[in-house]
Write a structure and sequence with these properties.
alpha/beta; 20 helices; 45% helix; elongated
Length: 564
């Protein structure tokens, strides 16, 4: 691939810098030439990738939504003011073809599918503050504004572009990124190695972005910020791509090949490349169309699937560098879902409908499973049987069982003495209580570290390990026998304290994952709304005297009903 400068002054008037000048500019920009608001530590911005509207929402979309929502809710729990963006990606050749196939105008087609993703976000009980559609007027304004900044910086030029193009991916691939083979449908041809999608050879005159001049700076950014791309396997992939060297990026398609999209400013014969258009959504939702002062940008965490890492960890930061905008603080690239260890596919019938499974298992139970079993580095395997195992073993067998046993009216748990017992147990515990006490004391900090990394599954495993120990502790101490003694020993309230303290701590830590059920559990313990922050997840901290007596509420056993 190569670039030949052609005259088209309205869009490329700053495109005559030599490569040495551009390299110097690429390394010098990004200091203080573009105004963004100060990013206070109390603000936290999480982004979801916007979803392509050419098919029905599936369990992978549900996972991305819930994972990003869990991160946002965790930040809320830690006292942050949060923003979570979501939305739909509605331009491109693939959408155009799908709309034609459905015999619908493209915008009507996009609206129909965008509404389905909105419905899934509601059904999943996600707390997005923004839902963007790339067909909105605000977004078109933001894209044109961003494009003009690239032009003004001298990073856009017009040139001939030849390469392998995958319509399904809306992406170009080099000769080293494709292979000739027979696919699983028995069709021979050229396919992208990374995505497995069919590619076709395309030669056309496009606008190009001088991405190649940002290679060294991108490498330095990642090497100096080891956690900026997580997990490590994805970071190493990106480093490998950068060390091979970057080529300039085609950032437009001829209008006669792609009509459905945003026109290049000053040149209506070209449409802006759909991925450039899509990535700018993260700016649009923060007011970029109206102002250069951005309240939340840059994102603290950008949640993406592993299949779109290249776009978010190479193209996006290079574009931001060129536009003199700050870079994302972290890119969390999660793995995918399989079923029966095979990639999910409608053609072989191994797909999971999130709407059906939410109805069957309940939204919080499905959220718990998807976060607990979902892969960050490695793919997770989805099955209804595994959801049922988690439901019965963890949610019913450990969490609800422990709470129901110890909130039984016949045991008479006195929540109003728990603050005193907690202080006493920190100073001195019986030998049989020490292991559980020490586990509960250490648990919040251990879980916090994992949650901050995005390793929610591992953090949840620690929570349920502690609940298992608490269940074993109450079984060994047999409070149901103590209550029959005359007089009832003071030890009874100590045993109940340990069990219900485990439930209290677990419920606070489960709030980002299961916001409804965890809140109900805290209601049963009479833990008030202002006692449900992460700072309250400390051993013995949740039972301080109120201006009234604390009173537990019965009915915990009904929190997780029997599955039909």
């Amino acid at each position: 691939m190569f670039g030949v400068c052609l005259l088209n002054r309205p869009a490329v008037r700053a495109g005559r810098m030599c490569r040495r000048q551009l390299l110097a500019k690429a390394h010098s920009i990004g200091r203080a030439q573009f105004s963004t608001s100060i990013h206070p530590k109390t603000k936290f911005y999480v982004t979801q990738p916007i979803f392509y509207v050419n098919s029905e929402p599936h369990i992978g979309h549900f996972y991305t939504m819930v994972l990003s929502d869990t991160i946002k809710r965790f930040a809320n729990l830690c006292g942050k003011t949060t923003k979570l963006s979501s939305g739909t990606d509605e331009h491109g050749q693939k959408i155009q073809q799908a709309a034609d196939l459905a015999n619908e105008p493209p915008l009507d087609f996009c609206t129909r599918y965008s509404d389905k993703f909105r419905s899934l976000a509601v059904a999943a009980n996600t707390s997005a503050t923004d839902f963007i559609r790339t067909t909105s007027d605000d977004h078109h304004t933001a894209v044109r504004k961003f494009w003009q900044r690239l032009v003004d910086g001298g990073f856009i030029y017009k040139g001939e572009h030849s390469g392998w193009y995958a319509v399904s991916d809306e992406a170009y691939y080099t000769s080293t990124q494709v292979e000739e083979r027979v696919n699983d449908k028995g069709e021979s041809g050229m396919f992208a190695i990374e995505s497995g999608k069919r590619v076709e050879w395309v030669s056309e005159v496009n606008y190009k972005f001088r991405m190649s001049v940002f290679g060294e700076r991108l490498l330095r950014w990642i090497e100096e910020n080891p956690s900026v791309i997580y997990p490590a396997v994805r970071r190493n992939e990106v480093l490998g791509w950068l060390r091979m060297g970057l080529e300039d990026l085609s950032v437009s398609r001829p209008r006669n090949r792609q009509q459905w999209g945003i026109s290049v400013p000053g040149d209506p014969d070209h449409t802006i490349y759909v991925w450039v258009d899509a990535l700018i959504n993260y700016l649009t939702v923060d007011g970029f169309a109206q102002s250069d002062v951005l309240p939340f940008f840059p994102p603290n965490v950008q949640v993406v699937g592993k299949d779109i890492v290249r776009f978010h960890a190479v193209y996006w930061p290079a574009l931001l560098m060129a536009a003199n905008l700050p870079l994302p603080r972290r890119i969390l690239a999660h793995a995918h879902w399989t079923m029966g260890a095979q990639k999910m596919s409608k053609s072989i019938g191994n797909v999971a409908d999130p709407f059906v499974d939410i109805e069957r298992f309940g939204v919080d139970a499905l959220r718990y499973f998807i976060v607990r079993n979902g892969g960050i580095a490695d793919d997770g395997d989805y099955s209804n049987d595994e959801v049922i195992v988690r439901y019965k073993k963890d949610l019913v067998g450990q969490l609800a069982n422990l709470a129901a046993r110890c909130l039984s009216e016949r045991l008479c748990a006195d929540l109003n003495v728990f603050a005193r017992i907690g202080r006493e147990q920190l100073d001195h515990a019986e030998p049989g209580d020490i292991a559980l006490r020490d586990m509960l004391v250490a648990l919040p900090d251990r879980v916090h570290v994992l949650f901050e990394q995005g390793e929610f599954g591992r953090g949840l495993a620690l929570v349920f390990d502690a609940l298992a120990v608490a269940n074993k502790h109450v079984t060994e101490n047999e409070p149901w026998l103590m209550v029959k003694q005359t007089p009832v020993p003071e030890r009874l309230q100590v045993v109940l304290f340990y069990s219900l303290e485990a439930v209290r701590l677990a419920s606070i830590m489960l709030l980002p994952v299961m916001p409804i059920k965890a809140a109900h559990l805290l209601d049963h313990l009479d833990i008030t709304d202002n006692e449900r922050m992460w700072t309250d997840a400390r051993f013995g901290a949740g039972w301080q005297p109120l201006d009234r007596l604390r009173q537990s509420k019965p009915g915990v056993a009904q929190l997780f009903p029997k599955l039909e």
